[in-house]
Amino acid sequence: MKKFFLGWGMLMSLSSQAQKQWTLDDCITYALENNITLQQSRLKKQSATEDRKQSSAALLPTLSASTNQSVGYQPWKDSGVMTVSNGQVNTEITKTYYNGSYNINGQWTVWNGGQNTNQVRLNRVNEQKAELTVETTANSIQEKIATAYVHILYLKEAIEVKRQSLETSRKNEERGQQMMEVGKMSKADVAQLTAQRSTDEYNLVEAESNLAKYKLQLKQLLEITDEQPFDIVSPITSDEQALKDIPSLQAVYEAALISRPEIKNIKLGIESSELQMKIARAGHMPSVSMSGGVSTSTNSLTSNPWGTQLKTNVNASLGVGVSIPIVDGRKTRTSINKAQIAREEAKLELLDQQKTLYSTLEGFWLDATNNQQKFRSAMATVESEQQSYDLLSEQFNLGLKNIVELMSGKDKLLTAQQNRLQSKYTTILSLQLLKFYQGETMKI
Question: Cβ-count burial of 404 within 10 angstroms (0-12 exposed, 13-18 middle, 19+ buried)?
């Protein structure tokens, strides 16, 4: 009985996983946790954090301890230690001896033109830049996921339209065969109806193939490599979603300039180049350092006890060093000039990124505006073409319209339906992307 329930529980678990349908929020959450590119960006950020911590620690003195133990041998030594025992003088020559040394040393850079402190600031800026790179990567992944998700929604509805079109073609073909049997339609006309049905079947298969490709693309963005069935939730997308007010382009652009991480990153790049310039200029300034140490030693050739030797051989030192650069082969000047060039490059990159951002938003805004207008027109067109085709079908069944007129009406209706779906989902996607660039969450 236990085995039965265990097996039943595992079966239900697998069934639940196989039937899982992903919402847009599920896809984004999963990708932000598992996407390899994003994980690599996070690791680079952790590395930048370690650099910042190391540079902060470099402001403090360093301290090290060392010891050295050695054995020596003097094969031709002819003198030794004289001792008196029982009234006799004895000379002991020790050719093998043992040395020990013990040292503690400290070093501290007191001042080097602000190079160390500016290096801390620079590494802190680099850490922030790495974090913004993570955000930029995450935003790019979210945009790609939303685009693939909306394409899947569009193709699902388009497939239903094509399936309905195929069903209509089959009915027309059956009706044509019935009319041919009673002598009201020629074989050539029936052949055209059969060809129309075959074309609709091909279009349906092609749309299903495109749907499978976009699902695969979404799985790849999520880093899912198993063979489990994959599908998304198909939320009810009302016409009102595509007819929402479109925010002004300037308002979206101004919000994006404040919130987008790629803009912040480049601004930090300008700050980084200025800090690099300060670090380079420190090469012209003198540096002051302090050093100190305590050492002692022991030797087996002396008769003093080990503890006494450690005490009597103590040697302590404290010193101050000043280094003044005179000629460095133009190294410092080159570093300064390169930092100035990097600053100008960062400023140009900021201008270029701002133009790119505006161009991107302008594209989204135009897509939303134009497709929203197309959607309004397409809704009226679909209604008109549907009424026209219904009337054509009735007249065809009565023998008042020929096969060419019926097929032409069907093609017009199918085109209108496809245009309606395409403009609807393009508008929804563009509106969501505009919302996302304003710093809001995408929801479909």
Answer: exposed
What separation, in Å, do the N-terminal and C-terminal C-alpha atoms of the chain show? 45
Residue pair 115/332 in contact (Cβ under 8 Å)? The answer is: no
For the beta carbon of residue 199, count every other beta carbon within 10 angstroms.
15
Computed over every residue of the chain, the mean pLDDT equals 89
Percent of the chain past pLDDT 70, that is, above it, reads: 92
Q: Tell me the pLDDT tens digit for each residue of 39-67.
A: 999 999 999 999 999 999 999 999 999 99
Per-residue pLDDT reduced to its tens digit, 274-326:
999 999 999 999 999 999 999 999 988 777 888 998 999 999 999 999 999 99
Half-sphere exposure of 235 (CA within 13 A, CB side): 14
Q: What is the pLDDT of residue 89?
A: 53
Let me know: does 420 contact 379? Beta carbons within 8 Å: yes
What SS3 string covers the chain? CHHHHHHHHHHHHHHHHHCCEECHHHHHHHHHHHCHHHHHHHHHHHHHHHHHHHHHHCCCCEEEEEEEEEEEECCCCCCCEEEEECCEEEEECCCEEEEEEEEEEEEEEEECCCHHHHHHHHHHHHHHHHHHHHHHHHHHHHHHHHHHHHHHHHHHHHHHHHHHHHHHHHHHHHHHHHHHHCCCCCHHHHHHHHHHHHHHHHHHHHHHHHHHHHHHHHHHHCCCCCCCCCEECCCCCCHHHHCCCCCCHHHHHHHHHHHCHHHHHHHHHHHHHHHHHHHHHHHHCCEEEEEEEEEEEEECCCCCCHHHHHHHCCEEEEEEEEECCCCCCCHHHHHHHHHHHHHHHHHHHHHHHHHHHHHHHHHHHHHHHHHHHHHHHHHHHHHHHHHHHHHHHHHHHCCCCCHHHHHHHHHHHHHHHHHHHHHHHHHHHHHHHHHHHCCCCCCC
pLDDT at res. 255:
96
How far apart, in Å, are the Cα atoms of 298 and each of 74, 75, 97, 306?
A: 18, 21, 11, 7
Token pair belonging to 368: 């939303």
For the cut 90, the answer to whether the pLDDT of residue 406 exceeds it is no
Question: Residue 295: is it exposed, middle or buried by C-beta count within 10 angstroms (0-12/13-18/19+)?
Answer: middle
Q: Is the pTM of this model over 0.85?
A: no
> Is the pLDDT reported for residue 75 higher than 80?
no
